[in-house]
Amino acid sequence: MEAIFAPKNIFKKLQDLNKNCLIILGNEPVVSNHIKEDIKSSTNSNNFEYHSIVIDSSLKIEQLKPLFENNSLFSNKTLFNINIPGGRITEEIKKFIIKVISKNTDDLFVFHFQSATKDLLKSSWFNDVKKIAIQLEAKEPGINQIEEAVKIRANFYKLNLDNESLSLLSNLSLGNLLAAENEIIKLSLLDINTNIDAKKLISLMSNGSKFDSFQLLDFCMTGRIEKTAQALSYFEEKGMEPILLNGIFSWIFTAISKLKFSLIEPISSKKLAELRIFGSSQELVRNSINKLSSKQIEASLLKIKEIDLICKGLQIGDPWLEINRFAFGISRLFNKKSE
């Protein structure tokens, strides 16, 4: 698992196997960027020149040839980072690449196939490259992998999250590793040396900005429409991942649903803590169970699922438009119920 989400010493592995090619399959940004940074840092210390090349179906061989020439006065070795977004390459360029690889054995070639076609993966050309390469995958972690992936990324940044905080962060990011990575990086910059449990994670994620996602939750579920609008505008301006905001709603509505349909009364703080609901969020849950009907809760969960699919590109739609609609809808609903 470590090798999937935080591979290391890739350059040394290539040297040990006497190979000069690396293949990256997939477009998950956290893993693919990690792989490229790992190998780039190693080759920097070994005096490699760095060239980035994009190959698509419109590229002509006359345009490509000069890009493989090393004109550096300081190095006779080059790391070629070759991005192939669509997976389609002309036969002429395929032949040229094989010739360049075989001729320049001291150079290093990183091929990133972001969306490789089945025909390409089965082609003799791809298999020829594969024979002289190490192949790594950069794919979004599955449902059963996300917590382990978050743990590995946290360990990479020397951040010690306990099992509850790992589960909470995984839930808030709704399986999106990039969203979780952004939060991990923010937390790592705080230079925290102690273990981070779920309560501390919520506290840390709630500090350091004009608004935070937990405040948005509070504004929505207490019917403060104007504050909801201000917070949403702030998050969009700051470039926050909409999937993280959706994750906050998923986190609290999942707890609301479980308690509403279990008919547990009274709802104890201990039971809420078991569902990873802490602090002022406990009162929001209690209030929501009393004010929302079963149909309203079910409809909210369905909308949260829809927004999740849109955020991940699995359904057509605008993530920010949908998260705005949902947040305003919840805020208006609670505003009416408070009248």
Strand residue percentage: 5-15%
Q: Count of helices?
A: 18
| Overall mean pLDDT | 85
* Residues in helix, %: 55-70%
Question: How many structural domains does the protein architecture include?
Answer: 3
Distance between the termini: 53 Å
Widest beta sheet: strand line-up = 2-3-4-1-5
Oligomeric state as shown: single chain
The backbone outline, from C-alpha atoms, is elongated
* Alpha-carbon Rg, integer: 24 Å
- Assign the CATH class of the largest domain: Mainly Alpha
Question: What would the CATH topology of the largest domain be?
Answer: Zinc Finger, Delta Prime, domain 3
Query: Architecture of the largest domain, according to CATH?
Result: Up-down Bundle
Number of strands: 5
Topology order in helix (H) and strand (E) letters? HHEHEHEHEHHEHHHHHHHHHHH
Main sheet attributes: strand count, strand direction, barrel closure: 5 strands, parallel
